[in-house]
Amino acid sequence: MLNNHTPNILVIGDLMIDHYLWGNCERISPEAPVQVVDIQKETTTLGGAGNVINNLKSLGASVTVLSVVGQDEVSHELKQMLDKIDTTSFLVEEKNRKTSKKSRIMASNSQVVRYDNESKNDISSESEQKLISKFENELDKFDVILFSDYGKGVLTDTLTKELLKISKAKNKKVLVDPKGDDYSKYSGAYLLTPNKSEAQLATSIKINDENYIKLNENVA
Questions:
Q1: How many CB atoms are located within 10 Å of the residue 178 CB?
Q2: pTM summary value
Q3: Is 210 helix (H, G, I), strand (E, B) or coil?
Q4: Which of 43, 46, 56, 72 gets the highest tally of CB atoms within 10 A of its CB?
């Protein structure tokens, strides 16, 4: 018998906006040896943990997100984008923090340059406590917890370890999309899903193929 239960998933991590400026290039600037791109249109999509949320929604899951953003126009735009895809969000606003926005200039479908406007420092201890409090109050509602770590300061060592401790006490599975070369803060997670380059960085093992992974599976 098929299980018709809609999974209720909590995503915690770094939210950002991916911003694209699309155009054509037909000349070089007289001011410097660079392309002049005539912008035809702009598009925005959810990036970072927002991309994970988009994917979960497309698979039919019910999603809630906990994160920290700045007190800026980008955070308002981000909240509107989350509301548009029917995602429940609890966003702590931090003064003097920049909500991540990555802008890419595209000419003839090729990326010319990318510029990032964001904060990468760890969130404040006050923000950590607000997330922990909300997490404790809401945890029973969720089937699975997902940490989406992009190294932008939301999933600090302190916060990550505390959330894992609370999850373990409630017997909740935590899945982690990790970042960095030290995975010790994720100790106790049910599953880690690094990509190839992230796995190589964390284990100091150059991955050539699947057989090489099997030969070295106990090294880390």
A1: 24
A2: 0.88
A3: helix
A4: 46
